[in-house]
Amino acid sequence: MKKLLLSSAIALTATGALAQVDQDAPQGGEMVVTYQDDVATLDPAIGYDWQNWSMIKSLFDGLMGYEPGTTTLRNELAESHEISEDGLTHTFTLKDGIMFHNGREVTAEDVKYSLERVTDPETRSPGAGFFSMIDGFDTWNAGEGEGLSGVSVTDDKTVEITLSRPDATFGHVMALNFASIVPQEAVEEAGEDFGRQPVGSGAFQLAEWTPGQRLVFEAFEDYHRAGVPKLDQVTFNIGLDPTVALLRLQNGDADVPGDGIPPAQFLQVVNDAEYEDQIVEGGQLQTGYITMNTQMAPFDNVDVRKAVNMAINKDRIVQMINNRAVPANQPLPPTMPGYAEDYEGYAYDPEAAQQMLADAGFADGFDTELYVMNVDPNPRIAQAIQQDLSQIGINAEIRSLAQANVIAAGGEEDQAPMIWSGGMAWIADFPDPSNFYGPILGCAGATPGGWNWSWYCNEDIDQRAAEADAMVGDEDGREEAWRQIYLDIMEDAPWVPVFNEQRFTLHSNNVTGDDSLFVDPVHIPVNYDYIYSTEAQ
Amino acid sequence: MWGYLLRRLFESALILLGITFVTFILLYLVPADPARQIAGRSATAETVANIRDQLGLNDPLFVQYWRYLAGLFQGDMGRSYLQRAEVASLIMARLPASLMLMVTAIVTELIIGLTIGVVAALRRNKPADHSLMIFSFVAISAPQFVIGILLLYVFAVQLGWFPIGGYGTWAHFVLPSVTLGLLGAGWYSRMMRSSMIEVLNQDLVRTARAKGLSKLRIVTRHVMPNAILPIIAMIGIDIGLFMSGIVVVESVFGWPGIGQLAWQAIQRVDIPVIMGVTMVSATAIVLGNLLADLVAPLIDPRIKTK
Question: Which member of A224, A303, B82, B306 has the lowest number of beta carbons within 10 Å of its beta carbon?
Fold first, then answer.
């Protein structure tokens, strides 16, 4: 008894999200992107930093992907994606004639191999945990058994994936880089060096990699989407300080500074009329927040946490970072499905905050500590928070430490009373509201070494989160459920949501395309596949 | 001589062994857990534990150290935690660029430094001397990062004489070499000046003058060869200074050398790469010192090897 459900992604595709991207854009030309750091790896099972994330997206494809410039899921290598009524069985059928860069056709066996590779403990993939809903994950990932029992190949083109629990995020998981399809023979031939000699089925293939200097991506002629990519070649020049990258752009030697506009020159560049048409601003799936450790007095008192929420002047903090963010009032960023438009949150009101603190029994305030990562602008933001807190009598001592040390402190139950999350957490892995819950607000994250630095664990909400994720096929109901979950979390006030960072992508006049491609939520800095050259015919 | 050489080589090996030990301990003491860096923020506790286990990070410190040493003696520097590639191949891919930059920078600093030093000594206490010494003072004090950006802006962006960072042709070498060489040029000019002044006051100069030799001949044949001796001994020691400068200069100019590699490895707690780069630069410094000590008696018979 299988009822075929159309995933919401396919339904949305039909309503015209595509219209934003110019499908008839001319082909040809090239683009130069600059980066300071060398690329760590291009192995899709291993790469997990924002630099290689979108490069890997251009070299590899998974079964699922996103409409360019949006957070809308679409079928990528999959011709169809059918979900059984109980939400447990996902059947993917591959498109015909999809080629790997080595000239071999992609088969269902490759899908099975790729999923087993990323979840194999030997691979040491940072993304293995994303696949925990697949049946048989626990034994295979523990190094036992013969492969992922939940993945079975029905025929050359069809693969059936059985889950151990219904999970509405599964489509997004299959669109992660970690779920990219790789050819077994190429992986085995390259061994540990697969990350240097990547072979995928993406729009571009790697033509050259000179460590520390340059990577060259060339358009893959047999790509399964006709007319994609638009550019013939993308060159990544490595080792350029952001300030130097900006000089190169001014000189016409670079098209996109991958590390963005250097903070010191930000105002100068943004206010320069010359760049007016070359800067695209967009949202980011990011929230910066202050955690209050709910296991440590006096933050175990919800009124204290609410008072702190009312005491922080978020507008001033946003101003301080040159308006590179918008003030936040809830955990989810505005571009995330489930964001509550009408919610007003805790308005800035230091007098009411002081009153609330007095009613909670802290009329004279108290002493506490605020942990922060020691890279600009975070210490400055911490100072602003410190000043705001002192307004209501809270004396916070700033502990400015290296990133790893702050993360370590947050992972201890009784170490850090307050943490400013800037520079560390949290950017979504995929555009789904559940991604802002589990590790950072759920009970599962409130363990030693976890990322739930508030040590907030509301079992009722945990239960509702699990139920919401099991709502397969009911997108609207699920989005509403998540919206309510985050509003209820704000009642418990484990965080002060402070701001959502904005992206500002600078590009030369040589490349163009819909603005959404330059602030693509899943491709950072830009969507390499769909941007086109103004010099192309 | 051979006994001396053997003893010095043995000492150098001991120093390098000591450096592996100290670096290893320091990296072990850093509170950042490499397994968590590899695992990323979405990893479960099991994934982190699995990675720790696979990398052998759960073993006692001395077991880990011994394993590293054993590998090192077989020429195996391990694999990068993040790039998964062999550390030796990562370093070898970048070493030529750093070495070539070092050579051009040494040539640059000698040319600039010695010229300034000689001119300043001959014009002692005159305006030329004062302005040259102010220049060398600035060269010593200015941060290399600032000099690098400044040179890039003036000579690459405004004048367009050189490429804006990068690597490849001889034109690419000029600005990084000057940036890196300027600091040493500042030191050498001061040293050469005082060394020249010292020699100029010696009896041999008076004798030469008494013989009626021309001033040019006295300076080029008698003063400079004597004054330059302490400078040559300095070059070997200087390699340590270069190694620290190279990290900054390579990052400003996008120079694909080991400084850049080290900088990135440190940020990501990639211990095998940090160890590898430290070992290579430590070896360069130790060899540089050894070479300086060995060359000194050859050019100045007054120095004897013991």
Answer: B306
